[in-house]
Amino acid sequence: MKKSDRTKQKIIDCTIDLIYKKGYDNTSTKSIAECSEVSEATIFKYFNSKKDLLKSILKEMIKKFKKYSTEEILPTLIKKHKDQSIEKLLKEVLKERSSFIAKNFPIIKIILQEMMVNEEIRIFFLDNIWKEMEKFSNFIFELGKKTGEFKNVDNNIIRKLTFGVLIYTVIEKATIEKKVKPETIEIEMEKIVETVLDGLRSDKNE
Q1: How many Å apart are CA 69 and CA 96, to the nearest integer?
Q2: Could you tell me which residue ranges the HTH tetR-type domain spans (predicted)?
Q3: According to the CATH classification, is domain 57-205 in 3.30.70.1350?
Q4: Is the terminal CB of the chain with fewer CB neighbours within 10 Å at N or C?
Q5: What confidence tens digit (pLDDT) does each residue in 136-168 have?
């Protein structure tokens, strides 16, 4: 990696860490420069402003999340568990998603915060992540209903009961318990998913 690329990456890493700990408004370009061990002028060499820096980081991370999720890991999970039950596939997807969110929580927290106040980031997230996740989850839910494993419940309801609980669990760990450990969340999600699926199973599988 070139020195310029290393410098830019260090600026990005420091920005994520500082905003995660102190919030966007309390993070100055001066503190980012000190953390990155560069001058403020160097930051503006790569980014026009602090706002531009944050926007660039979030868009790049959303693109990476999309590539990892919809082009790599999720298709792999479907292929790996294609001969198993849809319930098993859904459990594995939720387990992987919980681990992914836990490992990337600092940047995910910032993305969620910015989506509430930045319309450009919100739309970018919806177009690149949410719509893809909707298509993927609908595919699993429809398969579950087609095979008779799931009741004929609206997909949005199933999504809220599964992925919604996943997001809540991670946020609870981060804000109330102040710790986000992938292994802990995976164990807890296993129990939560089992409880949720009890209500989704069709009478044929009871």
Answers
A1: 10
A2: 5-65
A3: no
A4: C
A5: 889 888 988 888 888 888 999 988 888 887 777
